[in-house]
Design a protein that fits this description.
By secondary structure, the chain is α/β, with parallel strands linked by helices. The chain is 33% helix and 18% strand. It contains ten helices and 14 strands. Helix 9 runs parallel beside helix 10. It binds phosphoenolpyruvate and manganese (II) ion.
Amino acid sequence: MVIIMQNGVTEEQIEQVVQRTHAAGLKTQTNVGEQCTVIAVIGDKTALSDTPIESMAGVARTMPISAPYKLASRQFHEENTVISVNGAKIGGKQLAMMAGPCAVENTEQIVRIAKHVVKSGAQFIRGGAFKPRTGPYSFQGYGEPALEMLATAREETGLRVVTEVMTPQEVGLVGKYADVFQLGTRNMQNFPLLREVGRHGKPVILKRGLSSTIEEWLLAAEYILSEGNPDVILCERGIRTYETHTRNTLDLNAVPAVKELSHLPIIVDPSHGTGIRSYVPAMAKAAVAAGADGLIIEVHHDPDNSMTGDGVQSLFPDQFNQLMQSLRQIATAVDREI
Ligand code: PEP
Ligand code: MN
């Protein structure tokens, strides 16, 4: 349920409603929007059946939220959420552009790629230090030394660091280096991890699970939000379908669907979404045209020798640069900027 407050409501009136709700054993989150203030009530609302919230001063009306996710719902938060990461915004007019290798391999590699992508206009460097590999004998990432290499790339370029965290135990360590956590597709429903990044407080990119519905994905976001972290960025990265020609099926329907259902920003990963380098530019452009708030793209200067199999889907730095040029035109056409 949400409690919609009247225009001109006072802080004291909001506080009284919050106190009354807490007294009934329920939790609240308050969203002070431009149009109106909305208080989300979290928990079993029947606990409020003896409490006449609607007649309290400052209350306009109450409304049930029909979706099972509440804080992620646009019914709770009408305006788009815009997340700031050291001066870069995700969810605003400007698109958030994230690029870099699948895995951090050495300092020279990550700094070199970072210098290329910053020149092309990216604001974020991506790179895995902890890699979720399908098989246990594949390269698993260099761990903390790779996080230090990412920090060096940040110092040399000013780019913000996006990197994956795989376990709740590693959130503290990864959080020392990352500007934005990435939660990978395989961990979308790792509930202890969702809760831990929710408590930590840094922005989180939540990739869509390999076979998850949009509702399951928004419920996973709800875990993070319900721990008090409002900075969740959804990332469509393709889902598993019967089609085997591409690595995944990039579900661009998710972009307008998420925009309708939720206030959270959504970015698109056309690299994992296709698995094929030559398809990445077309799907990146399509994602921007569909209304995505940004892109996360794999870029490698020597993809044939990359340490994960993802070289085949990585753009060369020059291709990324060219793509950024053509994206500018698409962005303008849909009233966005790069
Ligand atoms: C990645 O970004 O390199 C990655 C492993 O992504 P996903 O979780 O989408 O497979
Ligand atoms: Mn990858």
